[in-house]
Amino acid sequence: MDEIKQTLKEKEDECEDLDTLCQTLMVRERRSNDEVQEARKELVNGLCDPTTQVHKNSVHIGVKLLGDLDVRPFETAMKRRCSKAEADVKTLEVCSLWETYLADPYWHPFKIITNEAGCSKEIINEEDEKLVACGLSLVMKHTRQLSLP
Predict the structure, then answer these.
(1) In the chain, helix, strand, coil percent, each to 5?
(2) How confident is the model at residue 98 (pLDDT cuts 50, 70, 90)?
(3) The overall pTM is greater than 0.70
């Protein structure tokens, strides 16, 4: 009977220790969660409003959206070809067209070439229908250096 009481006492002590450990871990988890939530709020606020600075020595973090076109090259090209009034409209038309092309998952205006050493390289396909239709094949002939890694 004493042996059973001894075992029961040990189990009760273990249970108390585990309860204490559990409470300690819960407090730590809550603190960590609070810190993460605070950091998340600061990050979201910093990304949403890049003019606000959280600290004097804070680092500027920029966000670039993949797949968005840079309109400036289109503007420059259209200003060379058209009047200023027409250039704005033409820029929007061309950008819209290119956004449609880029959204097409089946369009792949590249081709893979292999050199004598067996190294493959992906380059722009100058004969692609959409590139030719946009008149970019002429540009590509002058920039044969352009290739993707």
Answers:
(1) 60, 10, 30
(2) confident
(3) no
